[in-house]
Amino acid sequence: MVIDQVQHDLASLKTFGLISPQWCQRSREHLFKNIDLSELLIHPLEPIARCKQLLEILGVKSQLCRSVQRLTIAGSTTDDDRDAPGWLQVCPDDVIRVLSLLTDVREFSLGQGLDHLDWSSLPLPLQVAIHSFMFRPNVVGLSLSGVCRMEIIPLLQHPSLRQLRLHIVSPSSADDDAFLPLNVRPENDCEVSSISSAPLQKLCFTASCDIMELLLAGMKDPQATLNLAQITELEVGSLYFDEGMEDVWEKFYPECCQNVERYVVSPGGAPPPSYFPDDIPNFHIPLFAFDCFPKLKHLRVMLPSYYIPYAEHDPIPYLFDAFDIVTSSKPMPLETFDLEIDFKDIDKDAEPVDITETIVEIAKREEIWGRMDELLGRRDAFPHLTTVSLHITLTFCKFTESDEEWDAIENTILALMPNLQGKVFVWGYMPITHQ
């Protein structure tokens, strides 16, 4: 149907919904596919009002309950009587009712709002309802972001999780003494759609070593159903990858990366502006242990620009060394490689920094582009490589060159990469208007 072709265009969906009862029903299914109860969402209604409005709509149109495929809940908490409580602390009963009505949700996200989300500060009935909701067999995608003091061990008994994202999550002290089996299944009277169990396929991880240690130790328990050893997609954030994570990663790589085909090294967040320029966080080289990825086909490395000007912090030479080490003994099955250098400003409240001269200088660096061409252009080392994409992200900063001058920058880079001609592409994400 034409409606399905515009399912991401909310204005068009609302217009098509006025044409006929049949079109109205199909439009509503798309409009209610994603529900966002977040205090971060730009919306005329606050989360409490949106939650109550959603309950009213679902009460009148109960068939819409099965249309919701993705649910996002984000809020802040406080344990100080002098501060106003967060919206999840104010109306937990409404949230519990919403969770009980949405029977077919496949992806669930829980995260912090404008401030931190302390799991232990949520009312106990709401904690129970969220845990029960998370462990429904329908839920195959789970994202936890900025949640502190949350019990992580129960995840090891999730019945059907295929995608898991853990971003700046800290465990509860209760996890230290937890053991399996745990009663984490949904209530018997909760109506859910049956879905076949499958191993975890994708893991996105930007968190402390404590979380990974818990998961690695717990998955060895015979009662655990969550197995990290079968993942085919892995994303790791570099910001919180510290010395502790290096030790844990020595266990993680051989146990969990044997089947990974797609690997992303992402920033995982931005350090506070006060860290610059003297306290730039170190980039830890074990993130480039490509010899532990025997099936790696797609690699994406996203580097914040603040690493590049400082030789002691620049990870690009280590990236190239990692390629060299792996291919010295055998070819690498890599098919695509993406390198992104992100020039977004660290302090968005400050005056945008003009990075024009920096970009021009980087484009001329033969030790980057020439070295990459020398390595990746070896057909004996990379016999399956088809595409090399270079992304230079220029949003939220000043870039004063014209489009023609940007084309010259692209051509400067390409001229240093003759062996990859036809395979390499340069992409620039520039500001809407030049300053």
- The quaternary structure here is single chain
In the predicted model, the low-confidence regions spanning at least 5 consecutive residues are: 183-197
Distance between the termini: 44 Å
Shape: globular
Number of strands: 14
Query: How do the helices and strands follow one another from N- to C-terminus?
Result: HHHEHEHHEEHEEEEHEHEEHEHHEHE
Helix content: 25-40%
Q: Biggest sheet: strands, sense, closure?
A: 12 strands, parallel
Mean pLDDT: 84
Our estimate of the beta-strand percent is 15-25%
What is the structural class?
alpha/beta
Counted by DSSP, the helix tally is 13
Provide the spatial order of strands within the biggest beta sheet: 1-2-3-5-7-8-9-10-11-12-13-14
Radius of gyration: 24 Å
Could you characterize what this model shows?
This protein is an alpha/beta fold. Helix content is 30%, strand content 17%. It contains 13 helices and 14 strands. The protein has helices at residues 2-5, 10-16, 21-31, 47-60, 87-90, 92-101, 124-134, 209-218, 243-256, 316-327, 356-363, 366-376, 403-415, and strands at 34-38, 70-75, 107-112, 117-118, 141-145, 147-148, 163-167, 202-206, 233-237, 262-266, 298-304, 336-342, 387-393, 424-429. A twelve-stranded parallel sheet has the order 1-2-3-5-7-8-9-10-11-12-13-14. The protein has a two-stranded parallel ribbon with strand order 4-6. Strand 1, helix 4 (47-60) and strand 2 (70-75) form a beta-alpha-beta unit. The longest helix is centred in the N-terminal third of the chain and has 14 residues, at 47-60. The chain is globular, with a radius of gyration of 24 Å. Residues 183-197 have low confidence and may be disordered.
